[in-house]
């Protein structure tokens, strides 16, 4: 990996020579097949190499956007996801060919298999899934969480995941720093704000809630989370197995990930009718992995509280990162779930 530094920060710097050092083979030709801009840039590369084990197309992800140098922590986290977590995680994820971070250039790059070429089915945020499919993904997430649940040494200095930050703390710091009243009102007055209940429009309430969730999150079962299991980061593999990508691994409450996935993945009516059963299904899956969680009634209280975290993510998610239609759809789903589960009352009681 050291031979591949410095990492390119311009797309034009993705040359045959650099790719040869990153992939450990001779790349005699590279062509940019397409570019997908977003939170990170996804670039499809068409390659000619001297290694038959390297596919003819690969996906390179990195920070090539105007905002990228300000988000180096996200690039570093994704590098950790592929280099340090994926090899030991039970989650089905794309095969990784290179993962490196360059602190001096504030750049992280991952080169992975081209899932389109393999024929997987990508999920889309505006196409909610069935409760049965969500239950299957919760089973896989339970296996992933079980790796680290009850193992604080994994996150202590010199632990195998000592780099993993606290999921809620990181977002809380962002909120305190970025969300001035004018910025906040810009979000509230947008389409996504109109899709949410006015009960959740107060900036003081929002910041107070993040602070409470930060403190509450340290008192409940925590593990290494995938960190971003919304539908845009999921796929169905050719054998029907659920797949996950674009992980942002953090230490966090397992019920925060459950609430985030269940609410984001289901139509509002399906979520309302099935959420308690799905939480119970996750609880049973964790028990099958040898972990006893709190009673279901207590898990549902945690679920209700952490819905506010999912709401927070999408209410203030810049349109540079996700299209406004997607931010609006998710904000509406979380707002509805918060009303159904009395998140206001639960947060007030913390």
TrEMBL record:
It comes from the Bacteria. Signal peptide: none annotated. InterPro entries: Kinase-like_dom_sf, Oxido-Kinase-like_Enzymes. PANTHER family: AMINOGLYCOSIDE PHOSPHOTRANSFERASE DOMAIN-CONTAINING PROTEIN, UNCHARACTERIZED NUCLEAR HORMONE RECEPTOR-RELATED. This is Ecdysteroid 22-kinase family protein. It comes from Novosphingobium album (ex Hu et al. 2023). The lineage of its organism: Bacteria, Pseudomonadati, Pseudomonadota, Alphaproteobacteria, Sphingomonadales.
